[in-house]
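Quick one: structure for this chain?
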Amino acid sequence: MRKPKPRLLKAPKNENKWAVERTVDGKRIRRFFPNKRLAEAHCIEIDNKTEMLGRQDAAILGEVEQREAVECLKLLIPLGATLTEAVNFFIAENESRLKSKTVSEAVELWLASSRVTERRAVTRADYKSRSKKLVAAWGNQSVASITKIKFSDWMDSLVDTKGAPLKAQTRKNHRTIAHNFFGYCVEKGWHKNNPTEAVSAPKVKGSERDIFTPDQLKAAFNVALSVDKMELLGRPLRKAEQDHLIIWLALGAMQGLRASEIQRLTWKNVKFKLGEIVLGAHETKNGKRRTFPLTDATIAWMKTISKQGGELVPGGFASSKPLRGLRATLQEQHGIAWPSNVLRRSFASYHYALKKDANLTSEAMGHDGDPRLLKDRYKSVVDDPALPPLWFATLPAKSGGKVVPFEVKTATG
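Got it. Here's what it folds into:
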């Protein structure tokens, strides 16, 4: 494309002077002269230099490259951009590709970074497990090559082992971990933008939150105390297994503790004299120290445990045979299903119904006083005002054996 020629014109504010105007790199430049002759001479000088430079530049490009340059310039005209601007933009967009790593390399470094290593063990395991899908999809590809469209297509392709689309919550969990991973890559300069940000998190539809009734909780305690043969184990529960189940039920149902928190506690966390349980920062989900009062029912159940030393329950108890056996027995003998997280959800529902204070219940749940999480995930509607006191009055028999008939009393939790 021809460069614009310089223009000769009279100085706008001084008729006795002349000016030469030309455009350089998109900017207008003027130079003034005392007479027309000198101004014309300067125009000729510019033309000669332009022609010489044009010949030199043309000699660098072959005939094919020259035609390509002309076609590119034609495409840029509607955009008001120059060829130099287009090249600079391309270089900036692809700079991260030049120093990027493969997804496999980046995942390995990410898992070893503080973004992951400072999280809880269960979270680290989840990150490691879910990141395998990223490696399976793009292992040998450059991180910088993963576009928004590629990521969106990957999210749509996620299926379970039977080939069925994953549930919204599971897909949301995968997106969350991918967002963390690509955020790390952006920090390292391996990708210019986080491709996950263009894909909205899957919306998890609200559902009715199943909770236990006080009678169903009573049935669970009775199964834990039973001396009958448990089908899944092929034998009756041992005393230690019964104790672990009692602790699990009491702390989940009466205190609303998370399964992961119960599995990290020892008897040193239980302060009977103070009437409270203390969770250190390393024992809570949010990494903050948490102290909460023990309910009367929790104290009563915990004092039935003969061995009060060491860990409250063995590691991995959430998936242990005794707990799975309790759930199966409840279903087979009593027709009681065990919904996900039912003890914690039940605690939240009955505690809120009893206290009528969402902030207080959120604090007891370890939600930093944020009532939105309580509403979105845990709180169910308790229509019968008689049920909350009964829930927190599920007590062991004074002479041992199964659960005593309900004594209605005020919960202290």
